[in-house]
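quick one, 188 residues, struct below
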Amino acid sequence: MATTTADISNGLCFKMDTHIYKVIEFLHVKPGKGPAFVRTKLKNLGNGKIIDHTFNSGVKIDVVRIETREYQYLYKDEAYNFMNLEDFEQISIPEALINAPAFLKEGMKCIVLFNTEDESPMSCDLPTLVEYEITYTEPGIRGDTATNTFKAATIDVGVEIRVPLFINTGDFVRVDTSTGLYHDRIKK
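---
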């Protein structure tokens, strides 16, 4: 399906230079002098690299039809293995296609984008905010709740994050998987 740069929007997938790209950000620019153009930030769905690219206004792009499906993360061997929650079919997804593989937990539900032309997975997105248990951190200091000071902590998937001083081992926290940053503490 061919369309033009005027139709670019976040999440749009298209083919360019034999690769499939997903639009992460875009900005239509109409300078006072010269022709309009579209400045974009694109993610290569083949290798996960993010590039900046500028299109002249009105340039034709080859849009790829995609579908999103919910899959559950099972385990990791050579690749990451997921199961379709509707028909229980299992697929393997290489690490480069997953937005934050270090934060995957068994049983986590993820959104997988598929190219409908050949039914191949193009990317796997984790939920934005995920709950983890702190498995190790230095003890908190009583009264250190109002400062913006952070310390290292290990969460139950083995990733080290930065948390406020009042967080202790055994606490549950929410982490933003897109940035890897502490979001908040969960009272249990």
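The chain has a mean pLDDT of 87.
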